[in-house]
Amino acid sequence: MRLETERIVIRDFLPDDAADLQEIFGDAETMKNCEPAYDLEKTTRFLRRR
């Protein structure tokens, strides 16, 4: 699925998103209220499930 406006694109995750998503999921401050920060392997597993 893909939704697009002049300012934003919302789309499904792709396998190539792993490195960018790792920057978010791997940050302890970002993840402090949900679960421990992910390593790259856990981020990749997350993407495979989506």
Write structural notes for this entry:
This protein is α+β, with helices and mostly antiparallel strands. Helix content is 44%, strand content 12%. The chain contains three helices and two strands. It has a two-stranded antiparallel sheet with strand order 1-2. Helix 1 crosses helix 3. The radius of gyration is 12 Å and the shape is globular.
Keywords:
globular; alpha+beta; two-stranded antiparallel ribbon; 12% strand; 3 helices; 50 residues
Strand content: 5-15%
Distance between the termini: 12 Å
Mean pLDDT figure: 95
Unreliable runs, pLDDT <50, ≥5 residues?
A: none
The total of helices stands at 3
Q: Helix/strand/pairing class, anyone? A: alpha+beta
Q: How many runs of DSSP E, i.e. beta strands?
A: 2
- The ordered string of helix (H) and strand (E) elements is EEHHH
The biggest sheet, with number of strands, parallel, antiparallel or mixed sense and barrel status, is: 2 strands, antiparallel
From the alpha carbons, calculate the radius of gyration and give it in angstroms.
12 Å
Helix share bin: 40-55%
Shape: globular
- How do the strands line up in the largest sheet? 1-2
